[in-house]
Amino acid sequence: MTLPWRTIAWPLLIATLLAACGTTPQSHHYLLTAAEAPLPSGDSPTLGIGPISLSAYLNRNALVRRSGSNQLELSTTERWGEPLEDGITRVLGLNLAGLLQTKSVVRYPWHPARAPQYGIKVHVLEMDATADSATLVVEWLVYRPADASAIDRQLSRQSSPLPGPDADSNTLASLYSDMLLALSEDIAATIRARDAQSPADSTE
């Protein structure tokens, strides 16, 4: 018995369409990285990283680019390998541990009875890229958790040129990591200056 060609063709067509719908582009995941440094050997100063917060448009796992002054492009396949807030916390902690040679680094929130000497609060205002450059804008605060007093508050803006309009996301992640290192160096300099002014603070 020979079946009409339409009887055979329709199921094949439907199966082909369903298979096409089930195929999604492969996702790629990226990490921010800390600078290489010798393992810290000291126990002072004690540092607390956080809280770290993000502007709402960055609070997602997709890498963000700007295609115009007020237009964003959110990649469907280029993603952070961890929540961006966690990645920034991790990198700042590792960078500062190396720069200040201290093993005493904790993440916010910490136990109130074991508050660190210095807390580092960061709000990321911008972290995105155009066809020409990558930009990081943050407001940061170094404070004393013991009494919540501010030591230094700054608004920092960094921008790094991209090698071309088709720069890949791995290049972006590397540039953001470099800018976080520069931010870490500024924060470390503030803490060193404070310790130099008040040596007693470093032994609390």
Compact summary:
This protein is an alpha/beta fold and about 200 residues long. It has helices at about 5-20, 85-100, 170-195, and strands spanning about 30, 45-55, 60-70, 70-80, 105, 120-130, 135-145, 150-160.
Describe this entry's structure for a reader.
With 204 residues, the protein is of the alpha/beta class. Helices cover 31% and strands 33% of the residues. It has helices at 5-21, 84-100, 169-197; strands at 28-30, 47-54, 62-68, 71-80, 105-107, 118-129, 133-144, 149-161. Keywords: Signal.
Q: Using the coordinates shown, work out and report the CATH topology of the domain at 48-59 and 85-196.
A: Rossmann fold
Strand order of the largest sheet: 5-2-6-7-8
The H/E string reads HEEEEHEEEEH
| Main sheet characteristics | 5 strands, mixed
The overall average pLDDT, rounded, is 88
Helix fraction, binned, reads 25-40%
**Quick one: CATH class of the domain at 48-59 and 85-196?**
Alpha Beta
**How many strand elements?**
8
Please work out how many helical segments DSSP would assign.
3
